[in-house]
């Protein structure tokens, strides 16, 4: 079988590194080119010694590939993506640069005027479970943020079924790798270890992405969302708990919890990377895997839906989902190269 040639732009960030790990082991593609800024000219396995089995050298410019992943910081990614598309290369962009439909949102949330607004229209939001068909034929896929992936997968069945009656509270806890590899005081061991804090209470950058996609799920709605992320002392993982009032009919039904669980089981029945679980999942249950675990229940005292989801921010929250999207774009079985179970403990 002919293998597809793929590449990674910025292989030395955490998501680029995780992409390399998945793609080197992928049976349907060959990773033929990777780029990096300060590490250009070095062998990949010298810079990242866990990547055994490759003789790739990190380049300054991406070679000739069929599909590329851009794992650049936001704002820097858009011109790179434009350049790749101009070369006829299909792209999965892991940055936020093509996730928002409306270019006017970028100055407000990201502090820059979008340099390639004409590309926003053709970018497909890469939450695989919700946009599978469009992803398969896309030239440009905007891979979702790690927090939005966990929150949207947790809420999608209830929103789509019209079970919600009001605003959403989304409370997320992320491991430190979510902040990336660049040096930052808040990620220093002595400051992050044995500490938990909330941040971005005035509005995290992932909020407009969550609102945009909730609206897509139910176009007649105007979702009011309070999203509060927290940094917790673990390397990987995101645990999200969503709270939202349910319509009385389900909230007060004697078998409400069972009915709710069945709605979630039906919604995700054919999804290889979503598991609706009977007890609250632990972030560690997804460590290193492409799974998202979801536990829906009802707080019967208040009539609220409570949904807990968890995933590995670098796998289903980034590189794993990007490979899942690549599989669709290349016509490969969606699970190829992503079957590994989580690492435990
Ligand atoms: N971390 C996550 O959990 C996660 C999840 C989903 C999406 N994302 C998104 O994925 C993208 C990559 O995130 P990440 O966490 O992998 O990043 P990261 O670990 O913070 O990336 C740091 C790397 O980026 C390089 N870099 C920084 N500025 C650059 C520039 N202007 N030009 C070229 N290289 C530059 C640095 O290379 P040098 O060594 O040359 O300085 C460094 O190797 C971001 O847009 C992020 O928002 C991240």
Describe the structure.
The chain folds into two domains: 4-122, NAD(P)-binding Rossmann-like Domain (Rossmann fold), CATH 3.40.50.720; 147-313, 2-Layer Sandwich (Dihydrodipicolinate Reductase, domain 2). Helices cover 30% and strands 20% of the residues. It has helices at 14-24, 44-47, 77-86, 105-110, 128-137, 146-160, 189-192, 207-217, 248-251, 256-267, 315-329, and strands at 4-9, 29-34, 67-70, 90-93, 124-125, 140-142, 168-174, 197-198, 225-231, 238-245, 274-276, 292-299, 304-311. The strands form two sheets. Strands 8-9-7-10-13-12-11 form a seven-stranded mixed sheet. A six-stranded parallel sheet has the order 2-1-3-4-6-5, with helices on both faces. Helix 5 packs parallel to helix 11 and helix 6 runs parallel beside helix 8 (207-217). Bound molecules: NADP nicotinamide-adenine-dinucleotide phosphate (NAP).
Index terms:
30% helix, binds NADP nicotinamide-adenine-dinucleotide phosphate, Dihydrodipicolinate Reductase, domain 2, 2 domains, 20% strand, 345 residues, alpha/beta, Rossmann fold, seven-stranded mixed sheet
What would a concise description of this structure say?
The protein has 345 residues and is α/β, with parallel strands linked by helices. It contains eleven helices and 13 strands.
Unreliable residue runs: none
N- to C-terminal distance:
37 Å
Q: Report Rg.
A: 20 Å
Helix-strand pattern:
EHEHEHEHEHEHEHEHEEHHEEEH
Cross-sheet strand order for the largest sheet: 8-9-7-10-13-12-11
Give the overall silhouette: globular
The small molecules bound here are:
NADP nicotinamide-adenine-dinucleotide phosphate
Strand content: 15-25%
- The CATH topology of the largest domain is given as Dihydrodipicolinate Reductase, domain 2
Tell me roughly what share of residues is in helical segments. Answer: 25-40%
User: Would you identify the CATH architecture of the largest domain?
Assistant: 2-Layer Sandwich
Tell how many strands the DSSP assignment holds: 13
